[in-house]
Each structure stands twice: as structure tokens, then as C-alpha cells.
Amino acid sequence: MKKTLSLVLALSMLVAVLSVVGCKPAQGTVKLGLGSVTSIAKSKDATAEAPAEAQADTTIVAVVLDKDGKILDVRIDTAQTKVEFDADMKVTSDKEAAIMTKKELGHAYGMSERSEIGKEWFEQIAALEDWMIGKTVEEVKNMKVKERDASHTHVPDMPELTSSVTISVQDYIAALEKAAANAVEVKEYSTMGLGIIVSIAGSKDATDTTTAQAQVDTTMAATTFDKDGNVAGAIIDVAQSRVPYDAEGKADKTANVLTKKELKEDYGMKEKSGIGKEWYEQVEAFEKWMTGKPFGDVVMIKVTEKGNPDIPELTSSVTISVESLIAAVQEAYRYKK
Q1: CA atoms 321, 323, 327, 329: torsion sign
Q2: What local confidence, expressed as pLDDT, does residue 15 receive?
């Protein structure tokens, strides 16, 4: 993580220089929300023909709402992460490899060839985002849809989208609803970005005494910036998706994956934290600390060898590692409009 963070730090400084143009005028006080929906249903059991493959699909929506509840800005992305195993249930996927979201993959995602409209996923999601601008969440929820096939997936069924969006929209709307429900007030808003960092480093091989388990940690940061590039507000969360396998290589896909913030006390960090604070309480303290600070000050925060903050104003409130959180905020800055 430290090597990756150093690289992202270097890139972010370059982006800071290059992205001072193109910012829209400050919009003042708004509401910022972040929501996600995760499924592990597509994980595959080991068979005689093929080894096991776990899959976590986390759909993420960041939204900015005006005082009337209309969407000023919205970012949608999906981290479709796979963890592959061999016949002995040992992880074969590179645990240190960079994992890209569907938007980051761009044309490499490979949807355009299968799409009846010849458009890639990122192009279709951009059209959906543009359509949402100026509408309320309720209006988006009331979008007319139709079933695409026997899988009961819903696609838009309205003239302004039929030629540009043929992907299913259920999870995007569900994540948008969550984002609006947890939206918080943000002042001095000018731009917003969504950053996503994915790791499979926590995945485990089968051993003589334990079975295999895939683990996908998807860190997401919806971050707003003021006209000077300071952090105006941030919401950070982590979807920690686990797919356990039994001795025969069959996946348990029954878990309802909640984010760490959604779990709250059920995440179970308080007793182990050393400061008696749960994960969501610590990350909220970190969000509060970065609000109003220059972007450079946030990404250059001093941390310990374990990655937790090493500054007096946070030692009593944040003992979690913040390296992946900072990396997600950096990506949010990089992808802001």
C-alpha cells in the first residue's frame, strides 16, 4: 500500500497543477451523499472442469443535491472484482495488482462489441448520469423501465435513453437512493469527485486446517472541493466483501454485504481500537478533520508505520489505517470535473 500511495501522491501533485482550469462556479451550500450496493452472487464454485472464482460487484454512487433536492452532480461506477483460485484452493490472482473499476477500464471493459447500440459501459453510464442532472431522486426512481430478458434486469424504456443506455439500472438507482438518504450538508461546494480503491490482499488460501476465503475491500470516497481546491466535504466508506469456500470448493453466497458504516457497532472494532471508538466513528472524525483543508495537506498527512495518523489532533480519535482512505480521496480529486 505504501508504494502505491507514494505513486498516487506523485500523480496527485501533477493533477493539482493541471486541473486548475475547467472548474464550474462555486455553488455554495449543498448536500453530498455516497451509497453502494454489493453482490457476491456471481461467485463460482470449483468444478471438475474449472477452479473456483469469487466475484464481488460493488456499485457506487456519489451525488450532490441542491436545496430543492435536485441532482447537481452524480458519479456512478462499479468495481467488478474477481479472485481466482487453483485446484488446491490457493489464490492465483495477484494480491498486489492494481484493480480498475468499469469506468477506469474504459474500452478495455469490452461491452461495445456485445452492445446492441455499440456503446461501451462508461459511455452508457455517462449518458445516464447526464440524464439524472436536474432531476430529483424520486424522479429518477420513477424512470420507466422494461425487462431486458429472462434475468429480470431492468433497462430504461424512454425515448431519451433507449439509444444511449441499454445496461440494467436497478443497482444504480438503489445506490442513488442510499446516497441521498445519508447525504450531509457541505458548504463552499464547487466540484465533486468519486474515488475508488480496491484490494484483494485479505484473501486467504486453503490450508490443512482452514478453508479458503476471498476478500475484496472496496474503499470509496465522495469528495467535494471548493473553488480553491480545498476539501469542502467528504464521505468515505468501505465495502468489505468476503466469499468463504468450504472444503469442496463451494462458495457461500448467502451473505448480505453491508459497508463498514452500515454495520456501525456490528463491525466490532470498538473493543480492539485502543480508544473505544468504532470504525464509523473514527472515519467520521477523519472526514471532519480534512474538511476545509487544502488538498495537499490532506494527502501529505503524517502517518505511522501502521498507516494511522501521526498528528496530535487525531491521535485520540483515529487509530485506523488511513492510507487507502487518502488514496480514494486522491482519486476523487483526480476525477473531479
Answers
A1: positive
A2: 41
Number of domains in the chain: 1
Domain ranges, residue 296: 2-335
Q: How many Cβ atoms from other residues are within 10 Å of residue 130's Cβ?
A: 13
Evaluate whether 81 touches 99 at the Cβ level (below 8 Å): yes
* C-alpha span between 148 and 333 (Å, rounded): 36
Distance CA 266, CA 279 (A): 10
Model confidence at 116, pLDDT cuts 50, 70, 90, reads confident
Element (H, E) at 308: none
Closest CA to 191 of 149, 218, 228, 143: 228
209-250, pLDDT tens digit by residue?
A: 999 999 999 999 999 999 999 999 999 999 999 999 999 999
The whole-model pTM stands at: 0.90
Length of the chain (residues): 337
* Nearest C-alpha neighbor of 244 from the set 283, 196, 293, 210: 210
Residue with cell 483543508: 293
Percent of the chain past pLDDT 70, that is, above it, reads 91
In this structure, is the dihedral angle defined by the CA atoms of residues 256, 260, 263 and 265, taken in order, positive or negative?
positive
CA distance 47 to 212: 15
Render pLDDT for 120-142 as a digit per residue (tens, 0 to 9): 999 999 999 999 999 999 999 99
AA letter at 303: V
Angle among Cα 63, 60, 25 to the nearest 5 degrees reads 25
